[in-house]
Design brief:
The chain has about 130 residues and is mainly β. It has a single domain, classed as Cupredoxins -  blue copper proteins (Immunoglobulin-like, Sandwich). The structure holds copper (II) ion (CU).
Amino acid sequence: MRSSVMTLTLGAAGVVLLAACGGSTSPYGGGGGGWTSTATKICTVGGGQFSPTSLSVTAGTTVTWQNGDGVAHTVTSATGSADTYDKALAAGTVSHQFMNAGTYNFYCKNHGVNGTPPTGMHGTITVTP
Ligand SMILES: [Cu+2]
């Protein structure tokens, strides 16, 4: 009995997380469905992907990554990126402020591979002056 109740609770939590960060069927918000991505927010979606995979912001902007699929991810700067950061994204959100113009590749250490550019679960922030 106890184990079935726990399963139900975990399932409900997963649905809430998905609703909070949109579904993989409409990653860019065109079809609605609760997607809350903004011009400065990237979500993780099912299948080990960031969405959107690229974002363009102006210098000084703080970019936020939100865990939308309930899977443990990281947001990690790739080799060659001007900024160095490594943030665990098991749940909730993490943020990083990009102060200087340039191209910043990042990846997930759990589902991507570091490189220039990285592969697998990765993305790019383009910062303009
Ligand atoms: Cu990941």
